[in-house]
Amino acid sequence: MNEKIAKLKEIVACSERMVFFGGAGVSTESGIPDFRSVDGLYNQKYKYPPETIISHSFYMRDPEEFYRFYKDKMIYQDAKPNMAHKKLAELEAQGKLAAIVTQNIDGLHQMAGSKNVIELHGSIHRNYCTKCHKFYDLDYIIQSDGVPKCSCGGIIKPDVVLYEEGLNNDDIENAIRYISEADTLIIGGTSLVVYPAAGLIRYFRGKHLVVINMSPTQTDSQADLLIADKIGKVLGQL
Ligand SMILES: [Zn+2]
How far is the CA of 191 from the centre of ligand 1 (A)? Predict the structure, then answer.
């Protein structure tokens, strides 16, 4: 393992325009479980799998049940950035990391101080009235009883990409631009199974591809450096 950390240090030292592409595994060390990892508890408490509840059609059909799951399983108000978030913010401040592309919606990268964060799946911290588009913060969503409503009477929807919904085009273009211009791409805490987000990494043309993930990914064979460990633990050693 020490050899791999040494190699990672070497790669980071000679990189000037890195991009980090991350997923749920980046936040598990902050106590936010991957909502896709359906456990027995879900089955007891919810009649449908998370993929069904967190879908556009389900949200339209049953916002009450959607918000019950959303507030319970998607929002972790007390979560704090871990070593992965902190180290990435440091690398950006040093001018080595150009952008973070994340599939997470928790806002922990910004909380750690990162500025250029492309949130492919949106953020729980942004919420808009579906009628008048007024902005609401996360506190308002948490404090509202059941389905959060705007002062105009409209339903407030989180700026989170639900299943069946498309990704924001500007975010995709931005992500492609940064990834295609990167000299090093670090993929961390994601098994690269969620499309179209996972497809973005094929735009990488740079020198070093690093994969840091607990379980195997489809990119492992192309990686110059593969570390099967927790991302916070690994980046914390840099
Ligand atoms: Zn409104």
Answer: 38
